[in-house]
Amino acid sequence: MAIPSINLPPLSAARPEEILRPPKPWFVLLTLLAALLLNLLPWSGVWLALKPDFLALVLLYWCIQQPRLVGVGTAWSCGLLMDVGQGALFGQHALAYALLGFAAEYFHRRVLRFPLWQQAAHVAALLVCCMLLVLLVRVAGGAAPAEWSNFLGAISGALLWPLTSIVLQWPQRPPPSPGER
Amino acid sequence: MPALSYDPQPFFKRGPTPLARFIFFSLLSLAMLFADGRYGYLENVRLGVAVVLGPFQRAAMLPGQAWDVMAAYFASQTRLSEENQQLRQQLLTQGAVVQSAQSLLQENLRLRGLLQAHVRAAGNDIMAEVLYLGRDPFSQKVYVNKGSANEVKAGQAVIDDAGVVGQVTRVFPAVSEVTLLTEKDHTIPVKVERNGVRTLLVGAGTGHAPELRFMSANADIKSGDVLVTSGLDGTYPPGLAVAVVAAVERDSGLMFARITCRPLAGVDRSDQVLIVAAPQAGLPPRPEEVADRELPKRPGKGRRGR
Prior knowledge:
heterodimer, A: mainly alpha, B: alpha+beta, globular
């Protein structure tokens, strides 16, 4: 009997031509819940400014990777949860995440062709758009305009993108065939 | 020559296109933003989602709480004994104050009885602990561990040992949201303790000191003046310390003085707070609003005294 650890795929980015197995719906749900939990952790001070929006990141990953499973609707519902979690006006994160879901669905064929760090650049742009939208709604609602430090979260989110996609696609990768070694 | 289309014809039925779904959901969000922001229709929906989200929020608190327990366990003996010493001294000095306060309270009660004035109901104050800060870097909110189960009501004032911290703005079953007095446009009616001048203390948002708006340039306010709640709104009980005037700038070119204040309470530091019972119970109802044309013009939202 073979030791199971031999058949595990390597912990690195999947090559573009590699065919991933479809993820289990419960795995998608679990990762989304974990990201929500990370967002709800009591961050404060510098860490709050640096905190990437984990939920947006994981949503983006699934919207790009599995647009037929996770789309605009799921993203919108996650946004509602964030609105309640943050005590913000109802609908501002929902609106931003819906934009994220739409953009991801629009770009998903192209983005996956790029190496991870170029994907991260796309992600940074999307996250900044998402933040700008939230900011716009806030300012329209009478809040003080933000400082540039509020956009650090988008940068740190983009930096986390390679790690996020490696971790999230790892369970979907087929074990390497013996001939490949 | 027709251009090559990169989008393949849909082979399977996939429902509406992403664009259609995006437009639908963004219109829905905008409608919700208006319903919530303008009219406050969606509080029940929020309550429902909050109940679902509650276990996650509590789970997210666990690592921090575990860390606190560990830190408390390993806190050094000397620090504890130092703190003990300090607390003893405080107790001694405050004991005297409490005793005189008792006699003053009695006297006050008698005098108020004579005047048939409204007496603030004592004993309905609720001790609460700050669970976490709002996760939103843009707004000044904290969450405390008492909610509608403990009969907290929206609108109650929240104080700590030094003064007013803010006001309860939303109540969930087990937690409530407190908007701090530093929140942008959060207003508290105050008066200057020294001479009784009434004014409004308005929060200016994250990182800015709250200020007194619409004070004429010759108003009798000096830096160092203590501001206490005036109790005129029926929300904050009168006489709670709020802030101390930090700086007064008088510019002859402006109509109003620019007065910045420093909150007395540990607005962003205090862990234990007291939710104070609203003094509204005994107040007579407000008189009917007079028609607008009979009222003198008040400064509108667009005119800021800067």
